[in-house]
Amino acid sequence: MTITLRNTKGTPLTFNELDGNFTDLANRIEGLPDSAQVIGLIDSAYIQLRQRAATDSAATQAMIDSSISFQVNSAYVQARQSLVDSASIVSLIDSSYVIQRAGATTDSSAVLALIDSSYIQNRMNAFAYNIFHYETTGPQSGFSGADKYGNSLSYNPNRVSVYLNGVLLTPDDFVTTLSGNSITLNTNTDSDDIVSVIAINGGGLAFDSVTTANFIDSNYIQQRTRIGLDDIDFGSNKITYSNVYSNLVDLPSASTYHGMFAHVHATGKGYFAHGGNWIELANQTDIGTTISSTVDSAYVNDRVSTIDSASVTALIDSAYVTNLTGGGSQSKFFTATGSLVKRGDGDVMVHLAGGGGGASATHGGDGGNSYGTALFSNVADGTTITISQIGGGGAGSTNGSTGGSTIVTAGSQTITMPGGGGATASTPGTPRFTPTVSGGAIAFRGISGTLSGTFYTITLFGYADLRGTYGTSNHYGYGIGGIGGAYQSSKSDGLDGCVLIVGA
Q1: Which of 214, 334, 350, 420 is least enclosed, having the fewest CB within 10 Å?
Q2: Could you give the domains of the chain?
Q3: How many CA atoms lie within 13 A of 229 on its CB side?
Q4: pTM
Q5: Which tens digit of pLDDT belongs to each residue from 234-259?
């Protein structure tokens, strides 16, 4: 083999190259004769055969000294000197030279027996290292003492490497001390930075890029940055990046990156991942165009054509208005049974009419009218006011019948308006102008009047014709008595009653 020199290679030797060098040297050394072999060859007999007679050691020395002093002077030596460097030695002691002098019995097993793990460790000077980690809480340049794991900083100034957040700093970026117990950075750190100091023990191998990568790998950096492991809060700082893809087919899996937003250059649109699909986001120009093309006059007409007055009434009914106007403002007219709910606490005014009395078929027999007013006192909010009965008009006949009563209740209070009396042959029926009440309701007399020459009587809800007047519309409204048959036989029946509620 050929010995591999570091100066020739230009880079640090590998372990295989070191092993090859040691093996080569061992093979060469093994072939050299030892002292016993030399003594066996050059013994006393050998020497004596080559000695002159009577020339002992003293005489020999005297001869050599005189010869040397005469011939080997300074000029002799200088003339024969030459500089011997490493290249000269390598050219003289090459692989062939070593092989010729190495013993045939020195194989790889013999070399391994000589250059074992103990031999290598002794010459590597115990390749070992210590790592110190410091995490900053604010701007900081000096690091010493115990690290985050309680290890006190100690290093050889000539064998130390410093990393900031996993990035190797150059010797110009920090200052060491001869005592090897502190590191000072030239620039202050930020909060949550990680400073790592790697101290190499002994005189062994130094860290190169490969060795460093084995220790500070992607996992090491991820554990300290937490990117991909935890949610990262950047505070008020911004993350700026270009999340652009050339075409739709270039987008990553929407299932894997659910919630991701991206821009596709070919379409000029944005997309987000949801439900395993990339959902297209509309541009502002697209929205304006879509609305103007879709919501046209025909679109609007199709959706409003079915809204007529009946539809409006169904939507905006009394209940709707009541809810908007608040309590105590309801007024409602009833000609049939029904109910409503009181809004707010307070009194409720009730105008009501029973059925008008029936007329007599004989001259002069008009039926009696029915009309009165009463008050529900202090009705509580939410109380239901019920019209339980509307009085029917009395039937006309030879003798007319009495009209029916109208009944209204609110809680425990009741207002009853009796119907008008029926007429006899020549006697009008009795009019009813005062309701009967119970439970705290208050009764008032109804209002009636006469107009000269035209009407016999008039109430809030209608009128009746004066006796003896020939006409066609002899009575009108609610609770009005029938007209005598000698003049208007078709109007002999009394009119039905009604209810007007105010202030509910």
Answers
A1: 214
A2: 6-122 (no CATH), 126-225 (2.60.40), 241-305 (no CATH), 324-502 (no CATH)
A3: 10
A4: 0.38
A5: 888 888 888 999 999 999 999 999 99
